[in-house]
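Hi team, as promised in this morning's meeting, here are the two structures we talked about. I've kept the exact order from the run log so nobody has to guess. The first one is mostly here for context; it's the second one we should focus on when we meet again. Sequence first, then the predicted structure tokens.
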Amino acid sequence: MKNTFCAAGAFLVFAVALAGCWGDGNRDNPPSVPAGLTALADNATRISLSWNPSTDDFGVAGYRVFRDGVLVETVAVPGFSDNTLAPDTVYRFAVSAFDGGGNESLRSPEVSARTKVATWRYVFAESGYGYSVVQAVDNGIVAAGTVAVAGLSYEMYLAKKDILGNRIWTSTFGERGADNTDVIHSVARTSDNGYVAAGYTSQAGVTEGVASLAKVDGAGNLVWKKTYYPGGGQAWGEGVQETPDGGFIVCGRTLYSNLAFLVKTDGTGNQVWARTYNTVNWAYDPTTAVRVASDNGYLFVFRGGTGNLVKTDPTGNVQWQTTLPTTEAFSLDLTADNGIVVAGAQGGNVFLTKTDGSGNVLWQRTYGAGIGRSVRQTLDNGYVITGYVASGGNDIILLRTDSAGTLLWQRSYGEAGDDRAYGVEPCADGGFAVSGMWTPAGSATVHPVVIKTDRDGFVP
């Protein structure tokens, strides 16, 4: 009897153990590894993931999503959109599955995707004009021009957007009062990560324009603002660059006497010297057209019946002047091979010419109807030009070329009405920032506009 009882007990223990292993499944087995993981960039901040469902003896309870090796989300069903990402950035993703017993599968093989380059178009609610744009050290976009303030005057403005187009700050400053006007024609980033802006100041009943220079810190606060009378008379500042000694060089034109000018200042805007140069035609439209040469002299362009490229020494004395094969020269930039590229218009067409460092013309190109108002060298040593073309009203145009000036693509942007662009900036993400203005159809009110494109010039 004793042996029979012991045998029965042993069999019962064995049966219980066997049931635990095979009766309803093994609760120690994890789900299968998620398969078929894919990642697709939807826009500049979102990547969407999809994968096939895992299997498990008792059912899958959920999935864990890992970005760059770090858990970012737990979801109940396959699929997840990660919408907290930075533009133009590569991210790696993997997924694991888990069941109700706390068992977790191995992670899936990683997949990667790059978010898209940020694109947007921003129209200011205020009336005004947009003339220049520069990228900030944090990759934000700073646009400059003039806006109406309190219905009394036009004041200088600087507006900073983040790379997604969200407002960071807006700064306005000037001589507030009825019929007073302060305008920024050009803005440049400074070595202290602030900004310097050139333009003019006019006061009702006093002057139609005094060349002005404003220094602004990285948060948009005005540090100082100075005015200048090159040639002893009224003038407009049109281009500005920081100089190697920490000062600034301003180019522009005098009113009525039709002279080009350079003003050299120290780091606090005090005038060091001023020079005037013959001859420049009257032209209302501003241009950003001065650069510091490799020998610390200066290069600028002006209109004088034909386009002119001028090189001076560090104290503003002319070393050479080249008459360019174009009727209108509006903008220039230095090139990586120590040459110079100039944009403008010739016979109603967008014009681009390349010279060597001594002003000898190497090649010239035209690209169809329009006016090239601003040119910059791109990250791959090609060129980008912005301006406008008549199309009912006008449309903003953006042209991209290779290093030899061969056209790669051309885009146009415009709403109903009149659109014009005056400034362009290649961005660190390979896209482009454009500053201009828009007059809606049927309206006399002009609004500043900022456009951020992708690498191929597309916007939403």
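And here is the second protein, the one for discussion:
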Amino acid sequence: NKHDRFNIVGFSVAVDAFAKELVDATEENRAEAEQFIKKLNASGGTNINEALETALAMKSDAKRPYVVVFMTDGLPTVGVTKVDAILENVAKINEAETRVFSFGVGYDVNTDLLDKLSEASRGMTQYVAPEESIEVKVSAFFAKIGDPVLSDVTLDYGKAGVYDVYPPHAVDLFAGGQMVLAGRYRAPGTYTLTVKGKGAHGEEVFEYPVKFDGAGGRTDFVGSVWAGRKISYLLGEVRLHGEKEELKNEIIALSKTYGIVTPYTSYLITESSPVVREMPATLRSEILPRAAEAGGARNYDLLYSGDEWKAESIDSASEATPTEAGRLKSLGYMGGGGDKDGEGKALAGKEAVDASTYYWDSTTTGVAEKGKLMRAASGRTFVKIEGVWIDDGITEALKTLKVKFGSKEYFEIHNASAALQDALKLGERIVIGVGKWRLVVGEEGFESDQAEDYAQFIKDISSK
């Protein structure tokens, strides 16, 4: 954009700026800047602290949007090198709340620094893996932010009593972009939503009538959107600031309630637990011998991996279960490669970069695994194992009734109980706990001598 201003700050052991201050984006200045870039050499250390201070100090016009695009392929090794000290220095000089958008190139970058830097300034971090094109990612980024429309956005929901909104802060708006927030409210009714922000000509104010009516139907999906975004936020808190028991418990509760798979979604199960009893024989026969080999262990970890659940036997004497190790690695903790802080968090390396990429992707889209392997239906949480949806709250002392999917009896059950209809929609193979009954939907129907049981089952679900 010819009306933009820019500057370039190169940094290694020392900091070298293209110009003393921001310059107009004329063809001549851009040509000179390209020559400046071509002469930059990677040598010695990486003075990240001074480079950030230099770039942030160049903002000169409070009325114009100003962003810093911070690109690095290394760790801070010169000058101030401690993450907390760098963040503190940036906070002091960035009183104008300039957005910092970070690009980490390769795996030898301090993800803790880049993520916290972006979070504190309400920016975003992107990572470029060795096999990826940095040109593609940077071009897409500049295409997105090239035409700012509204910055420092705030929203007022009137007297609707809105709370628990995620992401917690409204984002800056650019041409062609959108802002999606999900939250809860206490007072149904029609209220005025007021949107304020800084535009090209000063403060802009927009008002829209919004109906908060609590109606279901077409808006039922909103609850899952909200849960996905809240889980993303909580995972980010764990990722950036360390694991706390209350955060972990809330993630697990939301995950089970809304059927969303997270790095915390795993099951510690025993041989008598419903998941083992109900899992297909092929999977059960795979893990039971493995348990014997492990010295008779009778606990199993059902861990999400890729697009399937994997069961592993657990030695009760071990210090860390496969679940714990896998979960922490997926959150960027533990794992090989890279320096670690005092809490054992991997700061650099492929695992840390992968975890950070997952985090930043989920902040804009919410956790993306909903419904693949867990799903909430009919007031229950179901786990999908080898094609069978299993009610994870089912108990052992239940009477089994088998019903063939798509049969006359299947549709009679569907029509007799509105409470079970959502669960029956899950698929062709389902195990559901219904009162004193264990309903198994699949390829087989009940035997002729269970006709009375079927009649009693219909009576039981029809009376509810």
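Starting points for discussion:
The CA atoms of residues 42 and 309 lie 45 Å apart.
The first strand starts at residue 5 and ends at 6.
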